[in-house]
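I wish you would study the pair of lines that follows with an eye to the fold:

===
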Amino acid sequence: MSKPPVKRAPGFLGDETIPASLEKESVRCCVCGSEASEPVAIGYDYEYRTSRDEWTYVRCTGCELVYLNPRPAVSELRRIYPSNYYSFDEGQRSNPLVSFFRRRLEALKAQVFGKLLGAGPKRILDVGCGDGRLLEVLRDFGPSEWELHGIDIDEAAVERAKARGIHAEFARLEDFDPGEERFDMVVQFQVIEHVSAPDEMARKVRELLVPGGLFVIETPDVAGWDEALYRDGLWGGYHIPRHWTLFTPETLGQLLGKAGFEIVRAEPLISTSFWINSFYNQALVSGKSQRWLGFLHYQNPLLLAPLILLDKLRMLFGARTSNQRLVARRVD
């Protein structure tokens, strides 16, 4: 099958100050190991313009996992995650009004986790904790007996987490060693789609959990409505070329099952940023003004309110969104 066409290439491809290409590596499906796949979308780095490369997402013909292939080599990570990457300093640049309401929404996660974990002291690890925003929410709205820990590969973000009073550590998951201690819950929000080996990561998480411990993942759902609308490569959830693996509940369930987990709960989540980034990408390739592009910011309250309502209505009627949460239990 030939590549699906992109409707229009972005204008920045003519900017010779942007690197023409990045070093790449070819990979196989991390769920079933197959190398057989078909292209489903192509696009460019619309957000950070780290290269002028054209990137292709493929779907495994064995298990239907969607992944970037070829993808940037690990040696290019510093380039594709520049110093102004949004998650490195989001807390410092966040809209105060948006931050207020997001904190109230995230407080609901403390209730969800409390029901999943039950009463009593519990140890929770946030993998990819960033500046500690989620852990701060769990500390402020969850039971006082919870023991909260976080790790992240961005040293500056870890220092900001520590300044918030969060027990955070600068470490890669692969190298993280808590000694004899194990965790009742490991959470990983918007991380698994970025890692080079999700299967190995899941096995490492299992080692960190107590028997029966819970692994909570939030990650894009590649089978949402807006992905179908923007499958020409402009869907914000592709986050080209930083999202390397994109799951559905079925493919993520397969991956976790092979790593020694059983699925406890799967549910859609509100996903405003992918909608807005899709609008931005479309405006960019259509040659819209910088003023218009600036309006299409993922923290713009004028866009967030109607999109939250849209996703809530979709969820009410049982439709998928472009974000999902899976809760899995370690099986022994």
User: Anything to note?
Assistant: The chain has one domain: 87-330.
